[in-house]
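Quick one - inputs below.
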Amino acid sequence: MKANSPPLRIVLAKVGLDGHDRGIKVVARALRDAGMEVIYAGLWQTPEAVVRAVDDEDADWLGLSLLSGAHLTLVPRVMELLKEAGLSDVGVLIGGIVPESDIPKLKAMGVARVFGPGTSMQEIVDFLREPTGARHG
Amino acid sequence: MDEALLEAFQRGERRALARLLTLAAHGQGSEFLYRLPTPAKASRVVAITGSGGVGKSTLIGKLIEHVRKQSKSVAVLACDPQSPISGGALLGDRFRMPSMPSDVGAFIRSVMAESGQGALAKHLEHMVQLLESFGFDVVLIETVGAGQGDTASRELADVLVLLLQPETGDDLQWEKAGVLEVADIIVIHKADLPGADSAASQVRTALDLAGVSSVPVLRVSARTGEGIPELWGAIGKIALRPRQQFSDGVELLRSARDELERRFSRAADSPRVKSLLDEWRAGTLSRNSATASLLRLLSELPISES
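Output:
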């Protein structure tokens, strides 16, 4: 990361009804410690509210945490709304419990990466710092 | 500066506003601000300050709902602190405000306040100008919560609201807080908790002693909704500060200061500054003459790009 480039802005949120927010908080803290601006939108968000947050906050990335198994219902909705809002250039990350066999489906929808249990924080930070993906480079 | 972006902003596209706010937050695009037409109507700019945990975000959330019920549009700039260690920030105010994804009359933006810069983010006045120009009736600013003596909010806002809560210290604590003298309205927040009455009367006494007894002291609870309409009523009674003339002068001073800061950070690259420092270390210069020489050298450096 160049010393003068503005920090990456990333919205972190949980969509749907699962109430497990330990993981997303750990990630929020790790990204903050990596020098990023983390906008924590928290639990129980609707896809509409998440996309609104990405829009108003002018975020480079959106990180969604899902542990409910509803990823194939909620993620397509988020991707669709991002597209409608003209935000297709925002990178989307998924974290949480996602069966191996669903990962290609999520990627086909435009999700940049799915991080499962056991992912190191460094791995996420390194991925976000890669020049590809984030629209502001 | 991208002309298409400016046009989109002037057409009222939210996306363009969001993008310009990012540029403004990084100190860019200020030349654009001077090209904006004077807004048809000034926004009411209200700064909410108070120490961490006093309920600023939660109360702002309630104020958003109250203001929207009156069919006025509202934008929020929520400042949270930057980590002095990593330079990153966890911006968590949005989480405590209502999410109204279909409501175009409400806009919430989280802003990182650089560490050591006080209670407000840098360049916040430009962000406020953008929101005003976009046409928001109300702009709410949440400070990072220094609480004591954050007078920068005073320059920027029409109305400064200080939040205090019960059981936060004895009556001497109110005497210390310099912000008591600059606040337009003082709110005893969490007024549903015990001790709110005595806190209110202690603050009242402190204000009387300071000779600012006209400042309203209101009991408000975001939890029960008590006092929200009264608070908004009190905010509405305060006259808007005059815009242009005042803020222009302040901005000029600030931009000169920022430029000087940038020059300081690049000073070590200048061979002439280096040799001056060498002379100073060698003990051949007095402090006063070295200071004068350094300032002269800095003033001769070219203007920074940003």
